[in-house]
Specification:
By secondary structure, the chain is an alpha/beta fold. The chain is built from 15 helices and 15 strands. The chain has one domain: Alkaline Phosphatase, subunit A (3-Layer(aba) Sandwich), CATH 3.40.720. Strands 1, 2, 3, 4, 5, 6, 9, 10 and 11 form a nine-stranded mixed beta sheet that branches. Helix 6 runs antiparallel to helix 9, helix 7 runs parallel beside helix 10 and helix 9 packs across helix 10. The longest helix is centred in the middle third of the chain and has 31 residues. It is globular and about 70 Å long.
Length: about 500
């Protein structure tokens, strides 16, 4: 290891966390812990994910590579991962994932971790837990029924009732594993924790619903919204607002958990030696473009994410230039004084965090794959599963191209933040110049991801395009299939 300002790094990733769900990006939001990290650290105002959902985004976060590059498949098997690089530099490494089935050893995400636990088996270990994971309304009723007793018990014990009665999101499994690791590890270390509470279904503890909605009957919003969506009824204005409230409550629940992890760093005496990096892996749609959750699209509600780096001793600042999440691995290695692999695609942002150097003003490229129907199941997860969409963003413009069909979209975000006015059909001279600048980047990226061939024909990771689909995938075990189905990925 070379000279470094910190000895340890904690990387916190939050599934489905859109930028405007965090107070540092939208002052109307209530996320005091994350906002505290942002106040102390560097906030990247225009940070973009490289894909619309976890398997398309995480190769950049943990391996600084574009999804599909070299293989045509999801995952990081065979790539030089961040954990491997740091482990080779003799750091202790641990990774704890709240049961996202796409972040498991099946796709290579355990590589380089001394301790790794995805908590997938615990979700599918009983009929009861599987049922609750896939029936959020039932879980909500149980939370509501138990809430008065829990609040009374907490009052008697002099405690705060900040925890859900049920933990089907595996938040506490992750939190406890992380705190145990911090308390027992000899520095230096790298710790990655991934939260799932902001992913559908949103079932936060009642106190957080009340906290973000100022409504002491807030839990009933959960019941009404989950009942309507569970029955396939129309998502009217009231239901949409309730879903947004539940989502924000789930984000606040994660926020509180992050706070307890930070308290453990302080209690262990390593707070001043530990950098904290926080990012969403992708966003979440609330019908901005006709759907809920995160189907294969490349608009800002799914691609614009929070990204904050807090290095003790560095000044707080905000950065206006756009950055991609593939910068996370080289930034972490740079902060720790470890040499980054040459094949990593991202650029370190440590000089920006340490001294305010402006990052390169380069566009960010994101991809997705879409079948004939945007909501079709199984959702595409390899290049073979549909048409390739590539987007390019700078601070003003978003350009999206269906590479296979040749169709394009162009949006000017400052004047059209919802990206509803497509300017590609009759572009002005200025808009044509933007297209001419971005189109070659799309072509080059498409060629790059296709250079490794298409996946799905070797019986290994490529076969997982239908994991959890009709008949399942024989290469994916029962627990993993159960968890993917619980998350809606049939």
């Amino acid at each position: 290891m070379g000279d470094a300002e910190v000895s340890n790094v904690v990387l916190v990733t939050v599934d489905s966390l859109r930028a405007d769900a965090v107070g540092a990006y939208d002052e109307a939001r209530h996320t005091p812990v994350i906002d505290g990290i942002a106040d102390r650290g560097t906030v990247f105002d225009h940070a973009f994910a490289t894909g619309n959902w976890t398997p398309f985004s995480f190769p950049s976060i943990l391996a600084s590579k574009d999804v599909f590059t070299g293989t045509g498949d999801i995952g990081v098997e065979g790539a030089s991962t961040l954990a491997e690089t740091l482990s080779d530099a003799e750091l202790s490494t641990a990774g704890f994932n709240a049961a996202n089935g796409f972040l498991t050893s099946h796709w290579g995400y355990d590589d380089g971790f001394d301790e790794f636990e995805p908590f997938v088996a615990s979700v599918g270990s009983s009929i009861y837990s599987r049922y609750l994971a896939t029936h959020p309304t039932v879980e909500a009723w149980i939370q509501l029924a138990a809430s008065p007793l829990r609040r009374a018990g907490s009052w008697i014990r002099g405690e705060t009732d900040d925890r859900p009665f049920l933990d089907t999101s595996r938040m506490f499994d992750v939190e406890h594993a992380a705190t145990d690791f911090i308390e027992g590890v000899d520095a230096p270390f790298f710790l990655w924790i991934h939260y799932m509470d902001a992913h559908t279904p949103y079932v936060p503890a009642p106190r957080y619903i009340r906290e973000v909605s100022s409504n002491w009957l807030g839990t009933h919003r959960m019941l009404h919204a989950h009942t309507r969506t569970g029955l396939g009824l129309e998502v009217d204005g009231r239901t949409l607002e309730e879903l947004r409230t539940l989502y924000q409550a789930a984000v606040r629940q994660i926020d509180a958990s992050i706070g307890r992890v930070l308290e453990t760093l302080s209690a262990a005496g390593v707070e001043d030696d530990t950098a904290v990096v926080l990012a969403g892996d992708h966003g979440e749609e609330f019908q901005e473009h006709g759907h809920l959750a995160h189907y294969p699209k490349l608009y800002d509600e799914l691609i614009h994410v929070p990204f904050v780096v807090d290095v003790p001793g560095s000044s707080g600042r905000r950065v206006d230039r756009q950055v991609g999440l593939d910068s996370i691995p080289p930034t972490v290695t740079d902060l720790l004084g470890v040499e980054a692999p040459t094949e990593w695609e991202g650029t370190s942002l440590a000089p920006t965090v340490r001294s305010g150097d402006e990052p390169a003003d380069e566009p960010v490229v994101s991809v997705t794959v879409r079948g004939e129907d945007v909501t079709a199941q199984p959702i595409p997860r390899s290049l073979d599963d549909g048409e390739l969409y590539v987007s390019v963003r700078d601070r003003e413009w978003t350009y999206i191209e269906n590479v296979d069909a040749g169709t394009t979209e162009l949006y000017h975000r400052p004047s059209d933040p919802l990206q509803s006015n497509d300017r590609s059909a009759d572009p002005s001279e200025k808009e044509r110049a933007v297209v001419d600048r971005f189109a070659p980047l799309v072509e080059a990226h498409a060629e790059s991801v296709r250079a490794g061939g298409t996946g799905g024909d070797d019986g290994d990771a490529g076969d997982d395009g239908n994991a959890g689909g009709e008949g399942g995938d024989e290469s994916v075990d029962e627990d993993l299939n159960a968890r993917l189905e619980a998350l809606g990925y049939r």
